[in-house]
Amino acid sequence: MKKSVAITLGVVIVGAGSWVGATWYTGKRIEESSQRHLAEANEKLAKITPLFGLRIDQLKYERGLFSTQARYGLSFVKSDNSPDGMPAGMVEFDATIEHGPFPKSALARGAIAPKLAFVHSEIAKTDNIKELFELTKDVSPLAGDAVISFGGFATSSARIAPVKIEHEGNTVDFSGMTVNGTFDRKLQAVTANALVETLSVNGAKSDDPITMAMSGLTMDVNSRMGKFGLSVGDSNIKIKRIDVVKPDEEVKVSLDNLGYGVKLSEDDKTINAEATYQTGDIVLNDVALGNGQAVVKLARLDGDAVKQLSDTYNQIVRQYMMGASDEGLKDEQFDVLLDNAGKLLNGNPSFSIDPISWKTAKGESKLTFTLDLANPPNVKELTPQEILVKAIKQIDATLIISKPMVRDLMVQYAVKKEGLDVTAAGAQADEQMRSVSGMAEMFNVGKNDGDNIVGKFHFADGMGDLNGQKIPAEELFAGLLGATGMDDEGEPEDMDMDPEAPAAAAAPADLMEDFDFDTVNAMLSDMSYSPRKEDGEEGPVLILDAANTGASDLRVEFMCNDFTEKCHDLVVTATYSGKKPVSLKAINAWNQEYRWTRAYLDDKNQAVLQMDMNSEGGIGKENLQIMLNTFFSIAEDFSVASKAAPAK
Questions:
Q1: Coil, strand or helix at 598
Q2: Are 590 and 559 in contact (CB under 8 A)?
Q3: How do 287-302 and 270-284 pair as beta strands?
Q4: What CA–CA distance (Å, rounded) separates 383 from 387?
Q5: If pLDDT is split at 50, 70 and 90, which confidence band does 86 have?
Q6: DSSP letters spanning 94-118
Q7: Whose CA is closest to 183, among 144, 218, 217?
Q8: Mean of the pLDDT values across residues 480-485?
C-alpha cells in the first residue's frame, strides 16, 4: 500500500515538474520570438499605410513562470510626406500572455489540446485617450483574446465597446462590434466574421438635420496565400437595412440588403477576380424604385505579372515613405511595369460586366459588356490608335431597357411628387416613353423590340457594329484619342515636340530580385567589415567587425523562404552592451525621430538597433550599398546618443 502511494506521489511530482518545466520553456520561446513578430508586424503596417507611418513599440515585457505581462504602443511616424494634422501621442495596449502547454483560460474555453499560449489584450487607459474611456463608460474600447497553437494556428475574438455620444440634443448610438476569426501562419490563411448590430445617428437638431439608422452589418473574410504570393479567397460586406431621413428637404430613403463581395481565384497560370454589388428594395419618398445588382469580372490575368506589378507598386510606396529619389531606379521600375503589362496582355485577359441589372415588379433592365484584350506586337513602332485597335481583340455589349419598368417608375413619381391621379400620370408616362423610344431609333442607340429598347455593340478585327451600323476603327477611336488631347500619331495636340531630344537613360543592369549571399558578402567585404558566416534559424548570418559603429555585436541576417530558398529580406542588427543600460525614454525618443530603424531593449537589457530591407520587386546593388552604409552611420549616431542618455 505504501509502495503504491509512493509511486503515485512520484508520478504526480514528475508530472507537475514536467508541466512547470514545459511552461517555463514555452514562456522563454515566446519571449525569444516576440521581437521577430514585432518586426514583421511593423513591416506589414508600413506596407498597408502608404500615406502615413504606423509602428508598434514594445514598452514593457515582464516574463513570469506561468504568464507574461507586456505593454505595446501604437503611434504615427511623421515624415515630410505625412498629411497635416496627424494625431500625436501613443495608444497603448496591455497584453497578458498565459504560457502553454495548458494555459488556464484556453482550458476554460474547452481547448484541452496543448497550446503555445492564450493572449488577452486590451487598450490601456492613458491620459491621451481618457475621453474615449468616458464614452465607453470606463470599459476598454478594444479588447481581444487569442488561443495560439504550437503550429502557428490561432483562433481569436475581439470586441469593440458600445458607444453613445450626446451633444446639443444630437446623438450617435453604436452597438459595438464583435469579431471572430482564425489565422494559420503556415498557410497564411485568415478567416474572420465581424458583426455590428446597430448604428444610429439622430441629428435632427443640427444645422443640417438628418437621421440615419443602420442594422445588421456583417463582414466576412476567407483568404489564404496563393501560389503567386498574393492572397486569394472571398470577402464580403452586407447590411440588412439603412434608413435615412432629411426632414428639411423632405427626403426619406430606405435600402434593404445591401451587399458587396469580392472573389479572387487562381489556377496554374492565371488569377481571376469577381466583384459583386447588390441592393434589395430601395424606396425613395414612398416610391418603390426596385432592386439591382452589378457583377464585374477580370479573367485570365497572368499571375506572375500581377505579382510583379504588385511588388513594384509596394517598392515605389516604400521609397515614397522613405523619401528616396533615385531616378535610375524609377526608370528601372517603369521598364518593369511596361514589361509586366505586356505579360498581362499575353494571356488575353478579359474584363466583363455580367450584368448590371435593375428590376422592379414590372420588368428588368440590364447591361452586359465583355472586353477581350491581346498584346499588340511591336508596340514601340505603333501609334496610340494602332495600339488601341490591336490591343482590343473583341468587344460585345448589350443594353436592354424595359419600357414597362421605366413607365411604372414615371407613374409612381408623378403620383407621389406631382400629385397627378393614376390615369393622368399614366397618359403622361406613355407620351414620355414614345418620345424616348423614337429618339433611341433616331440616334441609333437602340431598337424597339416589343416591351424593350435593345442596343447592341460589337467590335472585332478593326470594325465596330452599333445596332447594324458599321463603324471603322479609325472613326471609332479618333474621338477617344481627341478627348485625351492626343492626335493619331500619339503626339499632344497643339504642342511642338523636339525630335532631337535625348532618349531616356537606360535602366541599370544591377537589379537583384532577392538577396544573394555571395553578392552581399562581397559587398560587405569591400566595405571593410570582415564578414564571418554562421547558420541562422531562417538563413545564413554574417557577423561583422563592429568596431567602427560602437556596437558590441553587428550582424546581417538573411530571411529565406523554405520553399523557394530565396532570401527576400535582410535584417541588420547592432547590439550595445554598455555598463549603464539605455533608458526606455531614450529608446522611444530615438524611434520617434528615426524612421529607417527601430530600437529596443533585449532580454539582457542591452540596447538593440535594427533595420529591415526587402527585395520584392527588385532592388539595385547600389541602392543596397547606400542603405547598408546609412545603417552603419546611424549605428554610430545611436552609440553616441545612448552613452549621452543613460538610465537614471
A1: strand
A2: no
A3: antiparallel
A4: 6
A5: low
A6: EEEEEESSS-HHHHHTT--S--SEE
A7: 144
A8: 49
Per-residue CA distances from 174 to 163, 171, 178, 196, 252 (Å): 5, 10, 12, 8, 22
Q: Kindly tell me if the per-residue pLDDT of 297 is higher than 90.
A: yes
301 neighbors 291 (Cβ within 8 angstroms): no
Angle between the N-to-C axes of helices 303-322 and 327-346, in degrees from 0 to 180, rounded to the nearest 10: 160
Which of 202, 275, 196 lies closest to 239, judged by CA?
196
Residue 70 to residue 93: CA distance in whole angstroms: 8
The per-residue b/e assignment along 174-204, b for 16 or more CB within 10 angstroms, e otherwise, is: bbbbebebebbeeeebbbbebebbebbbbbe
d(CA 352, CA 371): 6
Q: Which stretch of 74-83, 259-268, 427-436, 442-451 has the lowest confidence by average pLDDT?
A: 74-83
Distance CA 452, CA 430 (A): 14
Using CA atoms, how far apart are residues 418 and 412, in angstroms rounded to an integer?
10
Which H/E stretch holds residue 180? strand 177-184
The number of beta carbons lying within 10 Å of the beta carbon of residue 405 is 20
Phi and psi at 152, nearest 5°, equal: 95, 10
Beta-carbon contacts of 402 under 8 Å, excluding residues fewer than 6 positions away, are 362, 363, 364, 365, 451, 452
pLDDT number for residue 528: 82
Q: Pick the closest to residue 643 from 592, 579, 596 (CA basis).
A: 579
CA 83 to CA 466: how far, in whole Å? 48
C-alpha to C-alpha distance for 103 and 108, rounded to whole angstroms: 9
Average pLDDT over residues 491-496: 46
DSSP for residue 127: G
Tell me the whole-structure pTM to 2 decimals. 0.66
Contact 576, 641 (CB under 8 A): no
- Of 78, 62, 81, the C-alpha closest to 70 is 62
Question: Can you name the residues that pair with 234 across neighbouring β-strands?
Answer: 222, 263
Enclosing H/E stretch for 479: helix 473-483
With contact defined as beta carbons under 8 Å apart, do 92 and 72 qualify?
yes
As a whole number of angstroms, the distance between CA 219 and CA 225 comes to 20
**Residue corresponding to grid cell 496627424:** 86
Secondary structure class of 144 (helix, strand, coil): strand
Question: How much is the average pLDDT of 522-546?
Answer: 88
Reply yes or no on whether the pLDDT at 538 is more than 90.
Answer: no
Q: How far is CA 96 from CA 66, 80, 246, 297, in A?
A: 11, 37, 47, 45
Q: Which residues contact 192 (CB under 8 A, 6 or more apart)?
A: 179, 180, 181, 182, 219, 220, 221
**Residue 504: pLDDT above 60?**
no
With H, G, I as helix, E, B as strand and everything else as coil, classify residue 434.
helix
**pLDDT reported for residue 194:** 95
Closest listed residue to residue 150, CA positions, set 181, 120, 185: 185
- Rounded to the nearest angstrom, the gap between the alpha carbon of residue 462 and the centroid of all alpha carbons in its chain is 39
Quote the cell numbers at residue 120. 488577452
User: 348 CB contacts (<8 Å, ≥6 apart)?
Assistant: 300, 372, 373, 374, 393
Least confident range from 155-169, 181-195, 435-449: namely 435-449
CA quadruple 375, 381, 383, 385: dihedral positive or negative?
A: negative
Q: What mean pLDDT, rounded, does the chain reach?
A: 81
350 contacts 300 by C-beta, under 8 angstroms: yes
